[in-house]
Structures are given as C-alpha cells and as structure tokens.
Amino acid sequence: MSDGSSFYVTTPIFYVNDVPHIGHAYTEVAADVLARWHRQAGDPTWFLTGTDEHGQKILRTATANGVSPKAWADKLVAEAWQPLLNTIDISNDDFIRTTDARHEVNVQLFLQRLYDAGYIYTGEYEGYYCVGCEEYKQLSDLVDGTGQYEGQLVCAIHSKPVELLKERNYFFKMSEFAGRLLELYKTRPDFVQPESVRNEIVSFVSRGLTDLSISRQTFDWGIKVPWDESHVVYVWFDALLNYATAAGYGYDEEKFARLWPATHIVGKDIARFHAVIWPAMLMAAGLEVPKQVYGHGWLLVGGEKMSKSKLTGIAPEQITDTFGSDAFRYYFMRAINFGQDGSFSWEDLAARYQAELANGFGNLASRVIAMVTRYFEGAIPAAVETAVTEAERSIRATERRVTAAADAAVSRLAIHEAIARIWELVDELNGYITEQEPWKLSKDPANADRLATVLNTAVRGLGTLAVLLSPVVPEAAAKLWVALAGVGTVQEQPIRSAYEWQGGDRVEPLEALFPRIEVEATA
Ligand code: ME8
C-alpha cells in the first residue's frame, strides 16, 4: 500500500478497432496534466495508458479487413495509438496492451484465484448484447432505432441494433458485493466523482446488482479461461485488470504494493465498469479498491457525443497540425470544466488561441524579454529594495496565492480551475506592464531603479508562470525557461513553490511562443 503521496494515474485502455479521435486525446491530456503536476511536485508518480485489444468488436473489425485480430491490433497500435502520444505530448511511464504476456498470464492468475475462492460459477444467460459497448444491455438501456434501424431496438450510445445472445457462461458473483459497494460510496464520497456520476452510480447499485457473465464461448479472440479453455474471458473483465497487471500484480508484488491503488480517469460512459464491476472484482480478490474513479464529461460536436461511429470524429492532428500540441492541451483543459460535457468548436479554439495564448501569455513573454534586451542589454536586473512599491508586492502575493490555489484545484481534479487561477497572474502581469510603462521609465535615468525593479518583477513573474504552466503547455514553458536562463529544466522546478524562483543572469532571445495563425484555413 502506498503512503498517500504517491500518485498512480491511468486512462482507459482504448479499443483498437479504430484510430483515435479528440475524445480519446482529451482523456489522455487530462491524465497527463495531473501526472506532470504531481511529478513536478515531487510526488512519486506513475502514469499508465494503453490499448484494449480483445473481444468481438476488434475481432469483427479485423475480419472485415481480412487480417488476424493480432495483426490488426499491432498495426493500429504502431500506426495510430502510439503516435497519438507524441502528437499531444503525453508523458506516460508505461503503455500496456492486453495482448502483452504480463497481462494475459496474470489475468488468468486473478481469475483462477476468484474461482478457487468460490466467486465463480457456471450459468445460462440470455440477453441483448451491444458489440460497440461490449456489454449486455437491459431493455431500459435501449431506444427505438431511426433511419435504417427503424422498428428495431438500438443501443442508446451507439444507435445500432443489439444482438440477442443465449450462452452458457461463467459468472462472477457480483451481486454479493452490492452492500459493500454502497458502504464504500458512503464512507468515501470521493471514491467516485464528479458528484453527478457518483449519484448515478449510487442509484444504480441501490437497485441491486446481478451477477456478471465473465466468459464467452462463441468466439476465441481473448484470454482463455484457465480451467476451461473452451471459454475466453469477457473483454471488460480482461480489460479492467490492466491497471493491476501493468503495476506488477502477480509478478512484481513490490511494485504493485508501491503503486496501488490508482486514480482512474475515464469518460462517464464507462464509469459504471470502473466504479462497480472493478471494485467488486478487487474486493473478491482481497485487494484494495482504487483511490478514485473520475468520470469526466463528453466532448460534444453539434450537441452529440463525438464519435467515429457517428461520423463526428475529429482527429487530434487536425488541430495540432495548425495550432500545435500545447494549444490543443491548453484549449481542452481550459475551455471545458473538467467533469462536465463541453462543445468543441473551431471558432472558440481559434479565439482562445489568439486572445489567451498568443496575446495574453505569449506576448507578455516576448515583450518582457525584448525590454530586458533593449534596456539592459540582456542582463536581468536585480530589484532595488527602496524602489519596491505596492504594485510589486501585489504581484508577489498573487504568485503565492495562485500557486497554492492551483495546487488545491489539481488535488480536486479541477484542472480548468487550476488554469484559471494561474491565468490571474498572466492578467495581472499584463496590467502591471501597461501601468508601469517601462518604456517611459527607460527615458529618464532618474527612474533607473524603478525600471530595474519592474523588469525584475516581470521576469520573476514569467518564471513562476513557466513553472506553473509546464504541465499544461510543456513546450512553451520549456522555451520560456531557456529564454529566462533558468537552471536545469522547467520540469525539475518544484511546482508547489513556483514563486520562489529568483531569476537567472541573462535572457536569451525568444521566438513567438504562440505565433499568429491564419484561421480561415481551418474553419
Ligand atoms: O471504452 N468525449 O474504450 P474506447 C470525451 N476499451 N471522451 C471521450 C469521447 C468523447 N466524445 N469519446 C471517447 C473503452 N472518449 C474500453 C475501456 S478501460 C479498462 C476499457 C474517451 O476506445 C473517454 O475516456 O471506447 C471514454 O471513456 C473512452 O474514450 C472510451 O474509449
């Protein structure tokens, strides 16, 4: 068990039936910002992401493409899912594939332990299965189809017909855990967040749980059930275990004890799997439940959940090719309240890029560095104690305040709020420069002490910003850090004392952090 300061954060492992869209990238960036923040705070941090490669959905896609499911998964991982991590600058420590031997072997070990402990039995199941969700559905989960599916019941998420299946399967006695789960939600209100998702989960479990079918016999693309190889493990049971098998479960108990339990960042569409099935599995195995399950909101396009199957999918590169990875990361983390749904629009992205990144932050950095170059030949001036006024004291106080407030917001996973707090410093520094008018101070040698003090304050403020913004816009923060002659890398600077930086010797030239973009081309 970890001592509480360690931070093990995960994303869902994504299905490799298709290439990533900005919804997947959104989850990756959120988890990455949290991981970078904690790493920079000195907390032992581990960030896991990966791919979900078994099950009928992948099998069908591979078959339709005339290749084996493993060959399909290999291709998609190499050509789409791994490259995504570069496209949006993800700092994951590990990448798990459910076809990894470390995973397959230890899923079998876990299952065998549950079997030996009496939590698994054989039974019959008949129900409606949605291959898109890889889940049996209740009638109440289905809606009337439209268009080509008129007259049929379809999955509310995928808008495609479900399949009536009748199988003899192995079942996990999940129903036994309803009471303990409700107790967990009650005693640890933070276990499932945000509140809207928590309420939904509590009301779902309050209605009672049924046992879970955990094997399939009609196809063989999956992990074999260890005591009966005519079955493969149900894909969700297999997938959820990635968080444990990647962390050493079954083969590196020291590592597992160090990392576990995890904070799971997922979309609210799959919160139920993570906040109900997964802790029940862990309870049955006598393992600690996760630290937290956070079900974030959906990116909407035209008012609907964006998805490839509904042809509303947008590839991350469509944005990063024009705006860069920092702008991608900033935009989604800033514009959408983490935990709520948010609509994506090119207009909003372009407007925020221009107003907040280019004019607000980028311009501030360029102007300050240009003035130090012009008025002090690049040497960062020291502040003169007798020339310090209320304006400088206010900036120093804001630096401290926003550092603490941003850290507190991150600990609540309120990423948008952390950025908003940091931006108070961007805005205050811009106002400060406008009011202090260093270009006027420079005209009269009698103001030399004020000029030095103002530019020293601005440079230190920029240093604080570089440190605080590094988890969100790592490229820009690194460039700024170099231009400010910061020692070491910006990622090494302790984030919880970002305001303590005293300034380097000389500034270096700085290219525009967020250059002007011809927006028409992307609209
Ligand atoms: O569910 N808005 O994988 P998946 C925000 N393999 N996030 C979105 C989104 C949108 N419009 N669309 C997708 C699976 N996502 C399983 C997970 S974990 C043990 C197994 C993100 O490829 C969001 O994180 O369908 C969502 O939960 C996830 O992608 C679903 O990815």
Q: What does this 3D model show about the protein?
A:
The structure is a single chain. By secondary structure, this protein is of the alpha/beta class. The chain is 47% helix and 16% strand. It has 18 helices and 18 strands. It has a 6-stranded parallel sheet with strand order 3-2-1-14-15-9, with helices on both faces. Strands 5-4-8-10 form a 4-stranded antiparallel sheet. The chain is elongated and about 90 Å long. The mean pLDDT is 95. The protein binds ligand ME8. Ligand ME8 binds at residues 12-15, 23-24, 26-27, 52, 239-240, 242, 266-267, 269-270, 298-299, 305-307.
Quick summary:
This protein is α/β, with parallel strands linked by helices and 523 residues long. The chain has 18 helices and 18 strands. The strands form 5 sheets. A 6-stranded parallel β-sheet has the order 3-2-1-14-15-9, with helices on both faces.
Question: What is the topology?
Answer:
Elements: E1 7-15, H1 22-40, E2 45-52, H2 56-64, H3 69-87, E3 94-97, H4 101-116, E4 120-130, E5 135-137, E6 142-144, E7 153-155, E8 163-172, H5 178-187, E9 192-193, H6 195-206, E10 212-213, E11 215-216, E12 224-225, E13 228-233, H7 235-240, H8 242-245, H9 253-259, E14 263-267, H10 271-284, E15 292-296, E16 299-301, E17 304-305, H11 316-323, H12 325-335, E18 342-343, H13 346-376, H14 390-411, H15 415-436, H16 438-441, H17 448-469, H18 474-483
Parallel strand pairs: 1-2, 1-14, 2-3, 9-15, 14-15, 16-18
Antiparallel strand pairs: 4-5, 4-8, 6-7, 8-10, 11-13, 12-13, 16-17
Helix pairs in contact: 2-3, 5-6, 11-12, 13-17, 14-15, 14-17, 15-17, 17-18
Bound molecules: ligand ME8.
The site of ligand ME8 has 21 residues, from strand 1, helix 1, helix 7 and strand 14.
